[in-house]
Structure formats: structure tokens, C-alpha cells
Design a protein that fits this description.
Oligomer: single chain
Structural class: mainly alpha
Number of helices: 5
Shape: elongated
Helix content: over 70%
Number of strands: 0
Mean pLDDT: 88
Low-confidence stretches: none
Largest sheet: none
Strand content: under 5%
Radius of gyration: 16 Å
Order of helices and strands: HHHHH
């Protein structure tokens, strides 16, 4: 296990959590619906907790902590802004955009847990599995809310 590779894996997850924090802040700003604002606040809290744990691990390894967001995250936020503006802040459109961002976050965690296990200690693997479960639960909540709109 190489410290640099471990740091890269953890920093990738820090970045995706930064994307979620910024994306949900944008989503919250785009809606006036209080239930969505509360939901997005909960999702921001999930990512802040995950990010804090990841930053702690990178610090312990003596690595440089990732700042900012990914290009795909910027694309997600820009797309969500455009979509919300075009649809008059339509609830389904906002949830569609959020689900897209959640898909990216879930995929990033799945990739780390599938492809990068050899770079992680058992403690780090456990931490990532717990974070994945929290992120996946957020994803599933957005998806079920969006699907409920489709079926109503």
C-alpha cells in the first residue's frame, strides 16, 4: 500500500463530497420549497461528515488535502442552474438534476470500494463502506421522491 495512492483515493472522495456540498447548496438556492431545502440541508450534512472523516485520514497520512470540486461537479451545477431556470424551478427537474449528481457520487464510492481496496487499510475500508451507505441512502431518497412525482 502506497501512501500517495491512498491519499489520491481519499482525495477523490473529498472532491466528490465537495461537489455534493456545492451542488446541494445550489439546489437549495434554486427552490423555495421548504421540504426540499430541509432535504438538501440533510444531504449537505452527510457530505460534511464524510469530508471531515476523509480530511482527517489524509492529514494522518501527511498528504495534501484536495480543495475544490471536479469538472464533472461544475458541469452538474451549471446544468442544474440552467435546467432550473428553464423549467421555472420545477420540482421534478431539480430532483432529476440531484439524482444525476447522486449517481456520480455513488459511482465514485463504488469505484473506490471495488478498484482501490488494496490501497486502503481495513479501517479506511470500513469508513468508506459506512460513507457509501449514507450517500446511497441519500441517492435512494432523491430517486424515490422523483419517482413519486412521475407516478402521481
Amino acid at each position: 500500500m502506497e501512501t500517495a495512492k491512498t491519499t489520491d483515493v481519499l482525495n477523490e472522495l473529498i472532491t466528490i463530497n465537495n461537489d455534493r456540498i456545492e451542488g446541494y447548496q445550489t439546489a437549495s438556492d434554486e427552490t423555495e420549497e421548504q421540504d426540499l431545502k430541509a432535504l438538501f440541508s440533510q444531504f449537505i450534512s452527510t457530505s460534511l461528515k464524510c469530508k471531515s472523516e476523509l480530511v482527517s485520514e489524509v492529514s494522518q497520512l501527511g498528504g495534501e488535502i484536495a480543495e475544490g470540486t471536479k469538472t464533472s461537479g461544475k458541469f452538474f451545477r451549471a446544468w442544474m442552474d440552467v435546467k432550473a431556470a428553464l423549467t421555472g424551478k420545477n420540482r421534478k427537474a431539480i430532483l432529476d438534476s440531484c439524482e444525476y449528481g447522486e449517481d456520480v457520487a455513488v459511482d465514485t464510492y463504488e469505484k473506490a470500494l471495488k478498484d482501490d481496496l488494496e490501497e486502503l487499510t481495513s479501517q479506511q475500508q470500513s469508513m468508506l463502506r459506512a460513507q457509501y451507505s449514507a450517500i446511497k441512502a441519500d441517492h435512494d431518497k432523491v430517486k424515490s421522491m422523483r419517482d413519486a412525482l412521475l407516478n402521481s
